[in-house]
Amino acid sequence: MLSCKDIARLVSDSLDRKLPPRQRLELRLHLMMCGACSTYRRQITELNRLFQRRFHDATGSRSDDAEPSPPRCPEEAKERIEAWLKQRLND
């Protein structure tokens, strides 16, 4: 069975490329049993979707009409993310 750290890597990889069948199965099985990794996958997928929507137009190319402002994250959210990451790295 893959660790949560391995699953985080696979989730990230799956955003960039199609995973081989065995890795997809391992990922799916782990996500069925691990609520933390399922939440992580939903969050990283949503962040990726928002980023794509923010910085790409309908054709997939970057819109140069306006200079994008940097995304802002509330301090409370930053603290929760940092705490979660620290906990995961110590597992």
SSE topology string: HHHH
Share in β-strands = under 5%
Domains, number: 1
Estimated structural class:
mainly alpha
Low-confidence stretches: none
Mean pLDDT metric: 83
Cα end-to-end separation: 15 Å
For the biggest sheet, the summary is: none
State the share of residues found in helices, binned by percent. 55-70%
Tell me, what's the shape?
flat
Tally of strands: 0
Q: What is the tally of helical segments? A: 4
| Computed CA radius of gyration, to the nearest angstrom | 16 Å
Summarize the structure.
With 91 residues, this protein is mainly alpha-helical. The chain is 69% helix and 0% strand. The radius of gyration is 16 Å and the shape is flat.
Task: Report on the architecture of this protein.
With 91 residues, this protein is mainly alpha-helical. It has one domain. Helices cover 69% and strands 0% of the residues. It is flat and about 40 Å long.
Keywords:
mainly alpha; 91 residues; 4 helices; 0% strand
Question: SSE layout and pairings?
Answer:
Elements (H helix, E strand, L loop, with lengths): L3 H13 L4 H13 L1 H21 L19 H16 L1
